[in-house]
Amino acid sequence: MNSNRFSLLTTLAWRNLWRHPKRTIVILFAIMLGIWFMIVSAGMMVGIMEQQVRDTIFNLTGHIQLHHEKYLDDPAIEHSMAAPDEALQQLLDDPLIKTWSPRVRLPAITMSEYESAGVFLLGIDPEAEKGLSFIGNPVVEGRGLESVTDKGIVIGQRMADKLETRIGKRIVLMAQGKDGEVADRGFRIVGLYQAELEATETAYVFIGLDTAQKLLGMEGEISEISLITNDRELLVPLVERLRTKNPQLDIMSWEELQPFIVTALKVYDNFMVIWYLIIFAAMAFGLTNTLLMSVFERTREIGLFQALGMQPRFIIGQVLIETLILLLVGAVLGNLSGWFTTNIIFAEGIDLSQYAQGMETFKMSSIMEFKLEINDLITINLLVIVLGLLSSLYPAVKAARYVPVEAITRN
Q1: What is the pTM of this model?
Q2: Per-residue pLDDT of the chain (411 residues; tens, 9 = 90+)
C-alpha cells in the first residue's frame, strides 16, 4: 500500500468515524475507561506489592542475612555465630553493599508491673541500623537508642499499651543466657517506635548490642548479620560470593527468607494478565459491535467502491485504520487519565487506617500506595491495540466479502 492510498484510506476512515459522532464518542469513552481501569488497577497492585516487599525488607529482614547454619531452624542462643572477623568485614565492605549490621536476636519474655508478653529481644547497633531497618528511623515518642552500650530499651507503641506501661517506666527482660541459665534485668523505657504492622510493634524490643551481649554472656558472639545492597537486582551473585567465602554460615536472600512474598509477586503477574484480558473482552464486544454497525450502514458504499475497482484488501485496510484511530485516540485519553489518577489524585495513596486490623491479616499497610511501571503501561497499550485490531478483523473481512452488485442493490 503506497502513501497515497494509505492517505486516502485514512481520510475515508476518519470521515466514516464521525458520520455518527455520538456513537464514536461512546466507543472512545469505553476504550478510554477500559485503559484507565487497567492502568489504575496495575498501579494499585504494583503499589501494594512494592510496599509489601519494602516493608518486608525493612522489617528487620534486609536483602541478605547471615546466620549460624542451625539458627533459622532453632533461634536459640547456642546457635549463635562469631562476630565478623577481618576477612568477613572486608566482604561486607563490598561496594555493592550499602550498609550492614550485626544483631543479637533471641526469644525472650518481657514483664511490666501488670502484664507479660513473649517477644524477640534484639540487641542492635543504632547507627548501623539507619537505612537498614525501620528501627533506624526516629522513634515517635521519647528517644532512640544512642549507642551499643545504651542502658535503655525501646519498645513498640502497641506493646506499651499491652503491658500497660509508658516511657520512663521499668520493665524486666528474661532470656536464656549462654550458660543455660535464665538471664534477667530491668530496663527503663526510653522510646516508643511505630511500625506499619501491629504485629511488629508487639513482637520486638530493642536494646544496645553490647548491653545484650553482656546480659546473655555472648561477648564476641551475635545471632545474625543483616545487610542492604545498592541494587536489589544483583543479589544472586552477591549471595553466591558470600557463600563461597563463608561455607560454614547459612546465607540467604530476602526471597529465600520470605517465600510467601515471592509467591505473591508471581500470583500478581499472572492475575494481572487475566485481569487485563477480562477488561479487554468487555471493550472488544463494544468495539466489534460498533464496527459491524458501521459496515452494515455502508454496505452500498462499500459495494460501489468495489465496483469502481477497490480491492478487498483495501476495504479491510480501511476498517482496520478506523479501528486503529479509535484505539490510538482512546489509548492517549486512557493513559493521560490513568497517569493523572495514579500520580496526582492518589499521589499520597489511599488511607485505609479504619480497616487497619483487616489489612494486617494480609500483611498490608493501612496506606494503599499507587505506583506505575513503564513495563505495565507498555503491556496494557500493546494488548489493547493488538487485540483490538484482531477483534476488528471479523467486521473488516465481512465488509470485504460483499458482492458488489448485491451490496449496491441492498436497501
Answers
A1: 0.75
A2: 566 667 777 777 777 777 778 878 888 888 898 889 889 988 888 888 888 888 888 889 999 999 999 999 999 999 999 999 888 998 898 888 999 999 999 999 999 988 999 999 999 999 999 989 988 887 889 999 999 999 999 999 999 999 999 999 999 999 999 988 999 999 999 999 988 778 889 999 999 999 999 999 999 999 999 999 988 888 888 999 999 999 999 999 999 998 888 888 888 878 888 888 888 787 777 777 777 776 666 666 666 666 666 676 777 777 788 888 888 998 999 999 999 998 888 877 776 666 555 555 555 556 677 888 888 888 888 888 888 888 777 776 766 665 454 545 555
Find the angle CA(324)-CA(327)-CA(329) to the nearest 5 degrees. 105
Show Cβ contacts of residue 179 under 8 Å, excluding neighbours closer than 6 positions.
217
Give the H or E element holding residue 156.
strand 153-156
Give the whole-angstrom CA distance, residue 258 versus residue 252: 10
Q: Which residues of 290-314 are buried (b: 16+ CB within 10 A; e: fewer)?
A: bbeebbeebbeebbebbeeebeeeb
